[in-house]
Amino acid sequence: MNIKYYLKLFIVIFIIFSLIEFITVIGLNFNELYKQQNLQPGVTIEGLDSQLTSGSKAFCNTHSGFDLEQSCKKLTNYNCNLTSCCIWTSDNKCKAGNNKSGPLFNSDSKGKTHPVDYYHFQNKCYGDKCDTYNN
Predict the structure, then answer these.
(1) What strand order describes the sheet that includes 102-103?
(2) pTM above 0.85, yes or no
(3) Could you read off the pLDDT of 97-127 as tens digits, one per residue?
(4) Interatomic CA distance for residues 71 and 109, integer angstroms
(5) Which end of the chain has the least Cβ crowding within 10 Å, N or C?
């Protein structure tokens, strides 16, 4: 190894120690800054229900078309009924839809329509067989 390598190494180490000394001299304490901001370590995970108006609207605004159908399929019954763009169907699935037309995508790739006896939109039952099958 040559002298240039050792010189570069010495300069990097010198800069690091100088920075540490500078922080010590000016009295900068990162622990105190952390405490002053009342930051709590950890991660907060919020469900859709904790932000009922903004969360459900954001969900519907960020998804559209077939992407909405795929996203609705991932929701639970509870979260499905919180949105204004998904419905909970009689076959216990969350699908893209609304209170007026029911499911938006209700046919297979061959065009065959799948009948839905009833569906829930924001916890209200719609369809001819609501009284018969409603829990």
Answers:
(1) 102-103, 94-98, 86-89, 119-121, 124-126
(2) no
(3) 887 878 887 766 676 677 778 888 988 998 8
(4) 19
(5) C
